[in-house]
Amino acid sequence: MRPHKFLPLAFVIAVALAVMALAQDKVLYEKQSPYTLITVTEDHQGLRTLLFDKNLVRQSVVKVGDPDHLELPYARVVLAGLAFVDNPRRVLIVGLGGGTLPSFLHKHYPQTVIDVVDIDPDVADVARRFFGVREDATLHIHVADGRRFIETAQKPYDIIFLDAYGPDNIPYHLATREFLQAVRKALAPGGIVVGNLWDRHSNSLYDDMVRTYQAVFDELYLFDVPAAGNKILIGRQQKQPIDREALARRAAWIARGKGFRFDLGDLVRSGYHRLDAPWQARILTDADRPKKTE
Is residue 283, in this structure, part of any structural domain at all? Predict the structure, then answer.
C-alpha cells in the first residue's frame, strides 16, 4: 500500500499495532511467487493471516474450520450484495486470498455455483494448504487472469465480487472502464457487481475508480466499512433505486434466515450511500494504463 503523505492518526496507530502483532505471530509459510512475496502467519488464537510483500496490509484473516468467522470488517460489509439478488444461482469471485468470502458463501449457499479466480497459482496452493479451502461440485478455483476469465465467460453470473489486490492496490487492468464493461456483460439480468476498494487515504485512484463504476453501471451504491479503510461499491444494470431502510430490512432478513453471526441489516443501514450524481474525477481507461503497474 502506498499511502498519502499525511495519514490519519488512527491509521498510523493501526499500522503500529500490526507491526507488533506480526512480530509475535508464527510464520507458517513464506515464498516468492511469480507476482508477490506470500507470507502466512498464525497467532496465539489460531487465526491465520495472509500477507503480500510484508506491507502490513492483511489480505485475509481466517479461523480454519470456522467459515462463519469474518475477522476483517470489509468481509462482512461486502455481503450487502446479497440483499440485491434473490437466491443467486451463480457467483464469481475475482481474488481468492485466504478464501474467506468463498468459504462463507459456500456454507450458507451450498447449492450456488461459486467460481473463484486468482492469477497466482501459489495463492491457490496456500488457500488449500493453510486456509482450509476445499473444492467440490459447486465450489471451483481457477488459476487465471480475472479479466480474461470474465471476458471469456460462457455463462452469466448473478453476482460478481471484485476483490483482487496486488501488494499495492487493485491491478489497473481490473479497474478500467473496458474491464467493467466486460463485467457488466458477464452479469445475468438483474445481476450486480460488488467491488472492494481502499479509500482515498491509501488509494490515490479512489475517486477515479468510483467515477469509472458510475460510467458503466446505471445505479451505484457505496457502503462504508466501520473501523477500516475499505469502501464497498455495488453496481446495478438498471435504474431502480432502493432506499436505505428497504435494503436494510432485506439484509437483516437474510442474516437471520441464514444464521449469520452479525446483523447485516445494521451494516447496510449505517454504511449506505446512493451515488446519484457523477463524481468530479476522471474515468480510467485501458489507453491510459500506466507503464508500470501490478
Answer: yes
Angle CA(246)–CA(225)–CA(42) in degrees, nearest 5?
Answer: 130
Widest CA span in the chain: 50
pTM for the model stands at 0.91
Supply the range of the domain harboring residue 273: 73-288
Contact between 231 and 271 under an 8 Å Cβ cutoff? The reply is no
Per-residue pLDDT tens digits of the chain, which is 294 residues long: 333 444 454 445 455 555 555 568 999 999 999 999 999 999 999 999 999 987 767 899 999 999 999 999 999 999 999 999 989 999 999 999 999 999 999 999 999 999 999 999 999 999 999 999 999 999 999 999 999 999 999 999 999 999 998 767 899 999 999 999 999 999 999 999 999 999 999 899 999 999 999 999 999 999 999 999 999 999 999 999 999 999 999 999 999 999 999 999 999 999 999 999 999 999 999 999 887 644
Q: What residues contact residue 285 under an 8 Å CB cut-off, 6+ apart?
A: 176, 177, 178
- Are the CB atoms for 154 and 187 separated by under 8 Å? no
State the CB neighbour count (10 A cutoff) for residue 99: 28
| Residue 80 phi, psi (nearest 5) | -55, -25
Residues 125 and 45 in one domain: no
Residue 185 C-alpha cell reads as 456483460
- Mention every residue, 6+ apart, whose C-beta is less than 8 A from residue 235: 180, 184, 192, 193, 195, 213, 216, 217, 219, 220, 221
> SS3 for 28?
strand
Q: What is the three-class DSSP state of 93? A: strand
Residues 41 and 157 in one domain: no
> CB under 8 Å, gap of 24 or more: what pairs does 104-107 form?
104/67, 104/68, 104/70, 104/75, 104/79, 106/67, 106/138, 106/139, 107/67, 107/68
